[in-house]
Amino acid sequence: MNGVQTGDTVLMAVTGTPGMGRSAFLDAVAVHAEQHGFVVRRARGSRLEQGLPLGHPGPARPEATGRPVALLVDDLQRAGEPTLTRLTALLAEPGPGPLLMAVSVCEGEFATEMPGVQEILSAADRVIRMGPLGTEGVRALLGERGIVLADDQVHAWTHATGGNPTLIISLLERLERLERAGRGASACLLDIARAQPAPWSLRSRVAAALTGHPESVGRFAACAALLGGETETHVLARLADLDPVEGDAAARALIRLGWAADRWTPPVLWDCVREAAEEGISLTDRDRLHRRAAELLHASGAPAERVVPHFMEVGPGDWTEAAQVMRETAREVWRGGDDALAIRCLRRALREFPSYSPQRGDLLAALADVERNADTSAMLRHVGQALPLLDAVPERAAVVARVPLTLFLSAPHAASEMLEQAGVGRTEPMVPTAGPMAWAAPKASETSEASGISEASEASELGLRLEARVRLSRLGDPAAQAAAVQRLRALDPERVLDPGPVPGPGTAARRELMAVLVFAGVLGGRLPATEVAARTRWLLEHEPASAASEYTASALTIASAAVAEASEPARCWLDTALETARQRDDRRLRTAVLSWRALTAVHAGRPADAWADAREACATAPDPARDPAGDSLGDHDWLTVLSLTSVAVETGDTWLAERLRDRLAQGQGAGQPVCGLALRVLQIPLTAERELPALAADVRDAARRAEAAGWCNRTLFPVDVWRAPLLLRLGDPEAALRLLARACERARRFGAPAALGRTLRMWGTVVRGRYALSLLAESVAVLRESSNHLELGRSLTAYGNRLRAAGRPGSDEILAEADRIAEATGEAVLRRWNASQPPSPHGAPPCGGVPVAGGLLSDTERRVASLVALGHTNQDAAEALGVTRRAVEKSLTRLYHRLDVDGRAGLVPVVRRMAGRAVFGSGVLAERL
After folding, report:
1. pTM score, two decimals?
2. Around Cβ 409, how many Cβ atoms within 10 Å?
């Protein structure tokens, strides 16, 4: 402009690929020119008229006023020859007044190479090329629309659009149509915008950029858009039916437009090209292109996830390799953690085969593998559909052996059908050879033809897995439980109990079978607790926790270890498994492991740990009310359900009981045996007196149905003990005593000190007379051999109180010992309780208040008392509670008075004992201490 004002004629050219802001630059020039006294004239190239009607908006020169003229011509490449000639002449003979001519030219358009356009460009005094926006430019453009994003999201927008302002604005227009700009999760805005159709303004620009180019360029671009992702040029050329020379020429033409077909950048632009291409071709051509694209990508070695989406669109057609490709892709993405895509791939492949096809059987088996953790009901259904389609017995056996082990326990009817279809339902289990580590199949004369699956080493592993599943499906039969113990003795004749070197881990199949056999021994009460503890310790030491799953043999091992009081190895293994579940972000596995850890803790006498893990597991478990489509807890999660039920009953946590009851009642498994039993047990403390008789009958019937199925044994889950308080409320102590007597007999046979001591204590608190003292004394003696100090403290309390009431000597020493245990237990409870503040998951209240004479402490007083009892200073307590130090001091003064203690030194043991005795008083029949 300075040059024009001195009387010169200046030609400025603005270039750039489509959408880079050439028109916006000319708009800014017009504003600037008017501010400096220029007379501004605007014109735009017209593709329809192929000319610039410069005379229509006014003469090229204004009246002779002496003011300079700014002639701004947009899209010069679209002007016709007459207009280009006139502009050239105007530059050659500018006339009497000063002139600034600014023209914009789109790079890459076919007409840009016309001689008239090139002549004007070559005559330009200055050429300004518009380039893409950088990250900060994209951030600023988004900020003008009120969108503020994190750095990683700004980088994502820059990559998706290539910094092209037009593409960015098109995405913002889509968001504005959805009225979501600046709302919700900003991390999703880019995905939300790209999921919407491209606006017509952008599609028209894309079409205009391709106009004039040879038809091969448009075909090449359409094929690149349909393929999606990085693709070699020669593959695109073959898909577009172009020879290599034509393909290279088309790729260069697109590069000049700023469109990299081989790299598929910028992605938002290619999204738009794909939409236009799919609408511009017939359905037949579309199907042909997708199938041809899949074949070419597969032949070029592209990843399977690039190939399969084309089949998902239209089906594989006549390509015979398509089903195998989709199966391979499903396997790859499944291993990568994308179960949903793997299931979609396999279901699409299934549509290509008739219902009687063996290939369909293979695909159904693969689909069942993928659904193993995602949808167990669908997995069992698809295994049942696959087996009749497979001809060979080894193939059917291999499919059954891949079904998660514990499903043969929770779905006995489906398991029996699968085993029958596989040809192993009536066969005898594997028999050992002379060596303890070598195994062979039974002779052909002794079993059906299915026994041939164990002829080789690999088949022997398969045989062990099948044996584990056959035995697990028969655990409801007492004879099968006895046979399992005999098999365990033959499989590993107590080598794990020897004081010598620990035997090797064996194979995974062997460990799986041993877990089943040990579990069968626990269910039947045929293995003593000491042997169960030793064997489960060995299994946990050799079973990798990183491979944990809620449906593997590890569930059986943990259940066995919990009741056998092998709590320490179980806790170490579960800690590692929980870390694995968190790293995988596997919510179902995390729920299972937390509940198993809670079960182990409650059997070990660590109520605070059990309470915290159970609450977290219940909060993590799927909520049918919030997510009806998600998997809810069902019988397949039998150990999770019964573990949480055990913790809720044993800790007396009403919030946990109500939350678990709601989860089960709203889920699909509410009518199943395990969930039905758990629902009725959880209902006991919440039922009105008039409804107790009906509930007692329901609990009894549910327990019988569950035990008949073989997976809910009273040794593992003491339903009889849980029913005793219900019978006492009904006024039937004789029936309650009979239940406790039977439970005591089972506990003696099993030999776990904590379980026996607890049952003796409960029996002793219900029975009257001298026999009660005898039972309680035996309970204390038994529990001194256990690491469960909580149960010892409860028994000592009950025994000491009975001795004192009977006027017997020794009660003070016994109660003093109980106080010491209560103090230690209370400290652990207070630590866990304080760690859960602020409120527990999903608004759960904290653990029950600390009882004192005259009522309960307030919530603030409980918090202050617990913090001080744990050794915190007044300032620490104030910071933790968010109050002043003076408020803490006032609370302490009230506590000293209410608890009748002299200062902090007297408060600490009193509060710890109170917390411990509060735990002593929770659980089944604990109120009778």
Report:
1. 0.69
2. 27
